[in-house]
Amino acid sequence: MPSVPREPGFARLVKTSWGRLAVPSLGDFFFAAVILWLFFSGMGWDELLSDADTGWHIRTGQYIIARHSVPTTDLFSFSKPHDAWFAWEWLTDVLYAALFDWTGLKGIVLLSGLIISAIFSILLRHLLWRGVNLFIAIGLSLICTSAAAVHFHARPHLFTLLFLVTTLWMVDKDRRSHTRAVWLLIPLMVLWTNVHGGFLVMIAVLGLLTAGTAVEVWLFERWRIKDVWRYGGLTLACALVTVINPYGLGLHRHLLEYLRSDWIRNMVMEFHSPDFHSESMLYVEILLFLGILSLPALVRRRKVVEVLWVGYFAHQALASARHIPLFVLIAAPIIGVELNTWWNMWVSRQPRKSTVTTFDQISVEMSPGFRWTSGWLLVLVLVLFLSGSVTWPQDFPERWFPVKVAASHAAEIRASRVLAPDQWGDYLIFKGYPEQKVFIDGRSDFYGPDLGKEYLDMVQGRYDWRALMNKYHFDLVLAPVDWPLVSLLKNQADWGVVEDDGKAVLMRKLGSTP
Question: What is the pTM of this model?
Answer without folding.
Answer: 0.93
